[in-house]
Amino acid sequence: MNSRERVFAAIRHTQPDRVPLNIWLYQPRFGSEELKSAIEDKYGRLDGFYEAFGIDLMMNIVPLPYADYVPGPSGTVTTGVGGLPLEDITSQCFRDPDDDSLYAGLADLIGRYGRDKAIVAHVWGAVESAYSFMGVEQTLMNLATQPERMAALFEMESAWSVRIAEHAMDLGADIIQISADAGSTTGLLFSPRTWRKLVCPNDKRIVDAVQGRGKIAAMHNDGNIWQIMDDIVAMGVDILHPLQISAGMNLGQVKKRYGDRLTINGGLDLSYMLPSAPEEDLVSTIEHTMESLKPGGGFVFNTEHFVPANVTLSRLELAYSTALRYAHY
Question: What's residue 10's pLDDT?
Answer without folding.
Answer: 98
